[in-house]
């Protein structure tokens, strides 16, 4: 099998630019009667630079166009993924509903056993302000110099001091699992369809 040899149709950009700089220096140093001889290769290299610029523009345009097509394809695939996930969730919900209403614990097939199992449960915050501070985490945003002075003291009214407090679902979940009641939060368990 023969291997095709790809030959470069023009010099690389760095060579064209180096030649141009050298020829411009030669033109400046040449006596007036020899400047015409230097200007011919200079004009050729300037034309080569013009073609190279057009070529680079063409390649960049092609890359940008391909990137745009990729973005469109990503968007299409994300929509398809969401549709598949929605369809799977809908089918799983339908199967779980049928199993639960008929008190069926498992459905056996030739290659799979479908089982209705309790999932670990998910925390739902019903009243964020009612959640005690020990079940929350604080995220603080401030300028770095203010952060370094925090070790010494902190003034709550300092300018540019921003913070947010959010309940920690993992802390709340652990507390509820340990038998504690957490005001402003509940933990619900649902069913999940297990396939083995």
Strand content: 15-25%
- Poorly predicted sequence stretches spanning 5 or more consecutive residues: none
Q: In DSSP terms, counting alpha (H) and pi (I) runs of 4 or more, how many helices?
A: 4
Query: What shape does the CA trace take?
Result: elongated
Helix percent reads 40-55%
Largest sheet: 3 strands, antiparallel
What order do the helices and strands follow?
A: HHEEEEHEHEE
Our measurement of the CA-to-CA distance between the termini, rounded to an integer number of angstroms, reads 50 Å
Overall pLDDT confidence: 86
Number of strands: 7
What oligomeric assembly is this protein in? single chain
Total of domains: 2
Secondary structure class reads alpha+beta
Rg, rounded, reads 35 Å
Side by side, the strands of the main sheet go 1-2-7
């Amino acid at each position: 099998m023969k291997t095709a040899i790809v030959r470069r149709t023009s010099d690389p950009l760095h060579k064209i630019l180096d030649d141009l700089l050298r020829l411009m220096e030669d033109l400046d140093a040449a006596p007036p009667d020899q400047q015409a001889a230097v200007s011919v290769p200079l004009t050729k290299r300037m034309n080569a630079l013009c073609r190279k610029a057009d070529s680079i523009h063409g390649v960049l345009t092609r890359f940008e166009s391909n990137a745009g097509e990729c973005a469109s394809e990503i968007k299409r695939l994300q929509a398809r993924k969401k549709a598949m996930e929605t369809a799977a969730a809908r089918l799983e919900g339908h199967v779980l509903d049928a199993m639960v209403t008929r008190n069926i614990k498992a459905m056996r097939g030739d290659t799979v056993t479908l089982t209705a199992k309790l999932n670990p449960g998910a925390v739902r915050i019903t009243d964020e302000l009612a959640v005690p501070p020990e079940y929350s985490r604080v995220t603080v945003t401030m300028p770095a110099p203010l952060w370094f002075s925090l070790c010494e003291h902190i003034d709550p009214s300092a300018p540019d001091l921003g913070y947010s407090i959010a309940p920690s679902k993992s802390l709340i979940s652990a507390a509820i699992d340990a038998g504690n009641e957490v005001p402003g939060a509940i933990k619900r368990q649902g069913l999940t369809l297990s396939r083995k």
